[in-house]
Amino acid sequence: MSAASAFSRQESDVPDITTDYATLALIAFGAYLLGSIPFGMVITRVFGLGDLRQIGSGNIGATNVLRTGNKPAALATLLLDSGKGAIAVLIARALAGEDAAQLAARASFLGHLFPVFLGFNGGKGVATFLGTLIALAWPVGLACCATWLVMALIFRISSLAALAAAGSSTLWMIALGEGRMLLLGVVLTLLVYYRHAANIQRLRAGTEPKIGKK
Questions:
Q1: Any idea what the Cα angle at residue 136 is, between residues 134 and 138, rounded to 5°?
Q2: Is residue 143 one of the residues assigned to a domain?
C-alpha cells in the first residue's frame, strides 16, 4: 500500500463531524460530565477540610480551597480543574477533530459552571477555561496563564487576575494567529465575567479580598 493510499485510508476513518451528530452529542455529554466533577469539594473532603461550600466564599475553586490554608489541596484542585478541561479537549480532538475539540471545551467549561452533581450551581471556571486553552492552542493558553500570574503577583487579587486572563484571551488569539478560536474565546470570557459579577462589584468598592485572605 502506497503512502498516499495509507494516508487516504486514515483520513476516511476520521468521523465526519459535520454530519455525525451522534458522535458530537456523546462528546459534548461526556465533556460536560467531566467538567461537572467538583474536584475542589472532593479534594477538601479527602484532606479532611470539610464542606468547601461552607468555607470562605463558598466557591468550589482553587482560590477558595486556598482559604483553608492548605496549599497542597489548593494546588491539587487547580491542576484537576484545569486538567479536566484539557482532557476533554484532547479526547474530543482524537475522536473527531478540531471542531469537536472546541465543542468539548465549551461543554466541560459549562459543566464546571453548572455541574449536574451540585444542582447546577458550580464554580467560576477560570482554571477549566485555561486548561481548555492550553489543550486547544498551548501558546494562547500559556500566554493567558502568564497574564494571570503577572496580575496576581502585582495586585494579589485572584479575581482581578482571572478577569484579566480571560479578558486577554481573545487578544492573545489574534496576536498568536488563532483566530479560529475567537468565538469560543468571546463566549467563555463573557461567562467568566458573568460568574464574577459579585467580584467585580467588590473590586469597584475596593473590598475584594487578597489572595490567601479568608
A1: 40
A2: yes
**Domain total of the chain:** 1
Rg (CA), the chain: 18
pLDDT digits (tens, 9 = 90+) for 98-143: 999 999 999 999 999 999 999 999 999 999 999 999 999 999 999 9
Handedness of CA 102, 94, 138, 155 (dihedral sign): positive
39 Cβ neighbours under 8 A, 6+ residues apart: 76, 77, 80, 81, 84
Residue 24 phi/psi, 5-degree rounding, is -60, -40
Question: Domain for residue 124, yes or no?
Answer: yes
CB 91 within 8 A of CB 100: no
Can you tell me the distance from the alpha carbon of 205 to that of 187, in angstroms, rounded to the nearest whole number? 27
Single pTM value for the model:
0.87
Domain that holds residue 17: 3-205
Residue 149 lies in a domain: yes
